[in-house]
Model the fold of this input.
Amino acid sequence: MISKPAVYKDKPLRRIISSILIIIAIAASGTLAYMVFDGLSFFTAAYQTLIVISTLGIRDNTQGFAGELISFFLILGGVGAVAFAVSSIISIVVEGKLRTVMGRRLVNAKISSISGHYIICGYGRMGKQVCDRLSQSGKKVVVIEKDDNKTARVEEDGYLYVLGNASEESSLNSAGIGKATGLVSVLPSDADNVFVALTASALNPGINIVSRAETTDSIAKIKRAGATNAVSPHAIGASKIAWSLTNPAFTKFLDKAALEESFEMAEIEIPEDSSLNGKKLSETHIREEAQVLVISVVQENGHHIFNPPSNFVISAGDQLLYIGAPGAEGRLQKILGS
Done:
């Protein structure tokens, strides 16, 4: 997560409150002074005080030198207090707008400076959970949300965001689609998720797109639109319930792998220039040095090799699916580059 901005101490607002209290004190003092020293009634004294402070000058009710002297000091003090209050109000408006503009520019600058991040389209309950999970694993995220009420929550949670429609090119470009590693579209409508997949895949053909599908019938459509994968929460929920009944121990194991940090379960791709390219699995010493267990290999042609034997030859483009102790990804990266 990005660090949250410090709470702004609203000095102009405090100045307004102070000036209002000063105006009330001056008005009360002026009314009392007119009553005591100029012999005016309460209503006439209050009215005279009001027209002097406001500089309207509609009618002068003073009856002598004492009243004129009181008016003199009221003009000096009251008009000054009113001017101070007006300047404070203007200050709040100008500074507030300035903070908004500068804050947005700062966020845009941060988005422009990052790469390899994940774009999350939609910040509902599912979008927030995706952001939290990615952030917990050390990934950078940028949220695209068109509801400014939700973007306020995004900012409170400490994530970078773009206010706009995720299916529009301008919003995706503002979120750094060209430098992003992946995109998650969890909008409530399948049609919206289709448009996001179409636009995102056109702007960055190599990006990994995972989309939410309300129905299983929509999965194929979303994939045809450009999504790498489409997930139906309802179908997954039903499958997990069934698995929990028939395989409770295995379900607990998967939950532990997905939700806890006691071990990692992930995948890593073998780059072209890796020193492991062309080596047998037994020659890599991955298990001893990286503390991981390779449970499957996905080759470039899509063929899965479950529990690969020790004499399996690793090739560039292979994806190793592994489970290991915390920090396994970093240790594997070192081995891949050595």
In short: The chain has 13 helices and ten strands. The chain has three domains: 11-110, 115-237, 261-337.
